[in-house]
Each structure stands twice: as C-alpha cells, then as structure tokens.
Amino acid sequence: MITCASAALAVVGSLAGEWNASSRLASLKPTIARWPFEGAYLRPGRARNSGGAGGDGEPRKSDRLTVQQMSFGLQARQCDPEAAVVGGPVPVIQRQPGLLSHTHATGDWGIRLALDSIEHAGRVNGTADRRHGIVHVECLHPEDLPRFRELGVVAAMQPRHCSPDLVAGTWMENVGEDRWDRAWRFRSLAESGAALAFSSDWQVGEMDPLVSLYSALTRSGLDGRTDWTPRERMDLDSALRAYTRGGAWAWHAEDELGVIRPGARADLVVWSADLYALEPAQLLDQRADLTLVGGAIVHDADSVSAGADVPFAGSGAAGHACSHG
C-alpha cells in the first residue's frame, strides 16, 4: 500500500578511454572508494544498439548493428547481431562482480537482441539476480514481454516519450498503426510482474516527474486533447512505484531507497497537494514544496519564493508525500 513518496538520487560516473576489460574493470573498486560524494554510484555500463522497429509482425533485423559501451569506454564498433549476443559488452560486464549493464534499445529487434544477450550471458557465466536494464523499450514484441520478468531485467522507461505530441509523425509512421499496441507497454509489463523504473530522459522529456506521471496516467499530450493506446494507461500507485521502488530495486538498493521506513535513506519529496485527490491534468499544476536528500533539506519552495540564498531554511512544509512501503 502507498503510505507516503520517496525518490532516490544517484550520481553516476563514467570512465573514458580504450576498452580493456581486465585493466579498466580492475580500477573500478578504488575509483568508487575515492568518489567524493556520499551516495554516488559507479555501477552500470551503458550499451546502445540501433535495432529499429520493423514490419510484418516480426522484429526488424538490421544488416549491421552498432553497440557502444559508453560508460566504461568501449569505442563504437560495428558487429553482426549474432556476434553481439556472444561477444558483446553484456557478457563481459556480467562476469564482473557488482556491475550492471543498461542497454539502450527502442525497436523490437533491438530489445530482443538485448534480452538474448542478457540471457546468453547469464547462462554462460552462471550469474543470477543481476538486474540488468533495457532503457526505453519503445516497441516491444508480444513474445518478448514476459521475458523481462523471467530474466529479471529492468524496463527503464520514460512515460513522457509516449505522448502523441512527441511521437506523432516519424515514429508512428515508421512503426505502423497495426503495431501501435506495442508502444511503451507500461501497464502490460507491470501486470506481467516485470520490474519498471521510470525516469525523464531529460532533455528529451521534461525533468519534472509530475509530467511523466501525467503521461503514464493519460497517454495524452500536455494539452490533454489527444491520447492513444489507452490500454496501457497506468494507475497512480503503479506509476509512483516505478518512480520510487522500481529504480531502487534496479540498483539492488530496495532496502534503503524508494521507501519510507526506519533505516532507509530519507530521500523525500513533499508535494504541494495530495496527488491522490487530483485529476491527472491537475498534476501539471503542482510543485515540490520540500525536497530532502539523506534527511537534509536541499530545496524549500517557501525559501526560494522569499529569495533566500541557502535552501536549508525551515523544518516543515504543509504538503503531501507518498511512497510504497
């Protein structure tokens, strides 16, 4: 049940340079130990593939595929899709203790390739409960939907991306109306038992999480006049869970982030109204009255309005918080 709201904040660093699994990964632990911020993380590798959404009910397989290991310095390289499954960055990362891969995949072929890579790596390396993520998941083939739960893969998705005012035109035309029901399947993934972690993907979408919550609840543009694929609308409970506990679970931090309870980090947002008492469109009119990170006030809307130079002013706010306990 929802009792009140918590949000996790993490700073993710990256390493640059030539990719060499043995030398680069060996430096990660001392790098993390020297990190200057409490709560900073250096965990996920980032891979990107260009598999797009194709036709006739099957994932489109590009002739060649670009895989780029951004966070840990693997230079962009060309490879065949089958080679990526066996020798790409996901199997390398899965062999390293504590490292997670976040693969950016939008089209149905790219998503399937990422799932195949993670499944293959887990089988070859004998790893379990790694919680690798696939980012965006914009066009999901029905046969691949249950694999997120089965493989323990996090669907790291951005609700604002599904708004008609952003995807009308090129995206809708490329995918084709007969496959629009595969687009941003938030509700279907949640109902299947998959782990969802929401984010903004700023600057593509607004950084404001209330905009993303509105998009998840309505599948509408910000003007409220158009919507599409209403079957995938979420309820507020599920959307908040994806924005709080979902992200914490993806980081193996569900015991300390994304919840309000004794022993957890006090990363909290106090909203200007009770979100559960509002219509979805009214979410867009709200603000964060108070923000705490690790129990310290880092934003106080009243102090900002008064022109205070330091945000640490005041010890309370007449607002509403919500999170999943």
Short note summarizing the structure:
With 325 residues, this protein is of the alpha/beta class. The chain has helices spanning 21-26, 28-33, 81-87, 89-94, 108-125, 145-151, 164-167, 170-175, 186-192, 209-218, 236-243, 245-250, 301-305, and strands at residues 11-12, 40-41, 44-48, 65-69, 74-79, 100-105, 133-136, 154-157, 195-198, 268-271, 288-293, 296-300.
Q: Please compute the radius of gyration using only Cα atoms.
A: 20 Å
The helix content, as a percent range, equals 25-40%
Low-confidence stretches: 1-22, 39-57, 60-87, 310-318
Largest beta sheet: strand ordering: 5-4-3-6-7-8-9
Largest sheet report: 7 strands, mixed
In angstroms, what separates the terminal alpha carbons? 6 Å
Mean pLDDT: 74
Number of strands: 12
Structural class estimated from helices and strands: alpha/beta
